[in-house]
Amino acid sequence: MRHWRVAAGLLALVMAGQAHVTGPWTRTGTYTVRRGESLSLVARKTGVPVAELARANGISNRDRVRRGQVLSIPAARRGPARGPVPIASTRALSPLPSPVVVVDGSRRYRVRRGDTFAAIASRMGTSASALMQANGIRRGSALQADTILKVPGQPWLCPVQGGRVDFSNGWGDPREGGRRHVGVDLFAFRGTRVVASVGGTIVHESGSRAGLAYRLRGDDGNEYYGAHLNSLATRPGRIERGALIGTVGSTGNAQGTTPHLHFEIHPGGGGPVNPIYTVQRWC
């Protein structure tokens, strides 16, 4: 269900403009509206404010865009500021690093003293040969205690299932209060299923900013965070891969916006990385 339709070159220009939003918005390309899309959804997908999209296309009624309509997509040009500065761009913010990290659903295992490939494979539900192949280890090699092994398993699941999924790369976009956007937004109809990408342990969170949210500590050693859900359908505790977590919505500070799941990936439970590479592969 991959629906990444914004041209890579255009997206790069838009992202570059957002990292240094200091000048006038100028035309850089076009976008063709698809069925069910609103101007606000196009704005979120391209990273251009709704007001700028409306101005660039002479749109007076922002609720009236039609399927097949070709929109001019502007991007901010670097240079001296002219006119109002968008929210959160009053501080000098350097671009966030965006290393290419693709999560594949593999679990992790720390080798203990006395472990063998056969014993680990039996414990983890795989074969010794698959375990060695996944880690590039030759037959007959010795195991060292505290080595972290990659354990092959079921493929990673896109967290939004059951319908069309669109997504935008808003990684590093400025937010009010000097914050940065450290995830991607997966757009789908309100009520679309949100599922566990991997098995693990889940906890619920809520707040005025995130709305209904969850945090999944995956069996693969990574932590996953989702926000703005319309509902939560599972209890905190153990959850299996593919199990229902809740539904897509627009709660918290996303009220009034197109329903979406704000989604983050924290490798090893540490700091966030740009999920776009994983989402592009699996969604």
Describe this structure in words.
- The protein has 283 residues and is of the alpha+beta class.
- Helix content is 17%, strand content 26%.
- It is built from 6 helices and 15 strands.
- Strands 6-7-15-11-10-9-13 form a 7-stranded antiparallel beta sheet, with helices on one face. The protein has a 4-stranded antiparallel beta sheet with strand order 5-8-14-12, with no helix packed on it.
- A hairpin with a 3-residue loop joins strand 9 and strand 10.
Task: Give the secondary structure arrangement, pairings included.
Layout: H1 8-19, E1 25-32, H2 39-46, H3 50-56, E2 70-76, E3 107-110, H4 117-124, H5 128-134, E4 148-151, E5 160-161, E6 166-168, E7 184-187, E8 193-195, E9 200-207, E10 211-218, E11 223-229, E12 231-232, E13 237-239, E14 244-247, E15 260-266, H6 276-282
Antiparallel strand pairs: 1-2, 3-4, 5-8, 6-7, 7-15, 8-14, 9-10, 9-13, 10-11, 11-15, 12-14
Helix pairs in contact: 4-5
What separation lies between the terminal Cα atoms? 6 Å
Strand fraction band?
Answer: 25-35%
What would CATH call the architecture of the largest domain? Distorted Sandwich
Q: C-alpha Rg, in Å?
A: 21 Å
Query: How many structural domains in the coordinates?
Result: 3
Low-confidence stretches: 1-28, 76-92
Q: In CATH, what is the homologous superfamily of the largest domain?
A: Glucose Permease (Domain IIA)
Largest sheet: 7 strands, antiparallel
Q: Strand order across the biggest sheet?
A: 6-7-15-11-10-9-13
